Amino acid sequence: MRASDADRDEVADRLREALAEGRITPEEHAERIDAVYSAKTYADLEPVLSDLPSEEAPRPRVDLRKDQQALPPPPPQSPNLVAIFSGVERKGRWLVEPTTNVSCVFGGVDLDFRQAVLSQGEVNVNVTCVFGGVNIVVPPGVRVIASNTAVFSGNDLPEDDTADPDAPVIRITGMLLFGGVSVKRKAVGEKAGHRHSVRREHHRMLHHEYHEEVREMQRERREERRQRRDERRDRLRELRDERHRGR
User: How far apart are CA 134 and CA 150, in angstroms?
Assistant: First the structure.
């Protein structure tokens, strides 16, 4: 895959750091800088850093768009999404970091990967969801693997539609508690179709939980009234017995 100007600049920055640390000589630095700015592909850049104990060489990103028209890379965004009694959405062209952390409490998160750019071939969506829902849309040819823990919860995943061992992978990890993750495979332009059904189920769960809480409070109040009634009765008995003993 062809390298971008940003990729070449990143490698040049690493070479400057190596020169400052004394890992390469000024002559080696000049020679490698020439190689960097004449490089056309990622394969041309890898040998320049192969003997340096620093970060990995740039890896090609995976553009999930099916059309190959040249577009600028999407701007970086926070890999942390939080929805508490609210909703968060990512769609369109966005850069997916190696790990995206999703936290929702009585909320919902919608992630549309159909026009996204993966920072690497396999990315991780780490979900912590309590009484909430995460809706994910992926394009055809993307493998989705769920490795999360679900307690009174569930994952709704489509069947794998590709046998390509090099297919992009979105791995779902984390923990669900009275929540759910729904994944739909749709081409660009198709309606996701699951948002309203998942949210209806989410609101149904909240409605049920609310009435359970109300019933529990009513039971507690009845128990408190019974205890106070018993205490008053016992106190009256004690007073009556004391009065009889005093005669």
Answer: 13
Of the two residues 157 and 201, the one the predictor is more confident about is 157
Distance CA 124, CA 172 (A): 6
pLDDT digits (tens, 9 = 90+) for 39-66: 888 888 888 888 886 555 455 566 666 6
Domain ranges of the chain: 5-59, 80-196
**Rounded to a whole number, what is the distance in angstroms from the first to the last CA of the chain?**
105
38-50: buried (b, 16+ CB within 10 Å) or exposed (e) per residue?
ebeebebbeebbe
Evaluate if residue 21 carries a pLDDT over 70.
Answer: yes
DSSP count for the chain of H helices, then E strands: 4, 14
Scanning 60-170, the segments in alpha helix (DSSP H) are: none
Angstrom distance (rounded) from CA 145 to CA 131: 22
CA distance 101 to 89: 13
Mean pLDDT of the chain: 82
pLDDT tens digits, residue range 67-84? 555 566 666 667 899 999
CA-wise closest residue to 6 among 83, 54, 61, 52 = 61
How far is residue 212 from each of residues 55, 123, 202, 206, 215, measured CA to CA in Å?
53, 38, 15, 10, 5
Closest CA to 120 of 165, 83, 168: 168
Report the interhelical angle of 5-20 vs 26-38 (nearest 10°): 170
The arithmetic mean of pLDDT across residues 13-18, rounded, is: 83
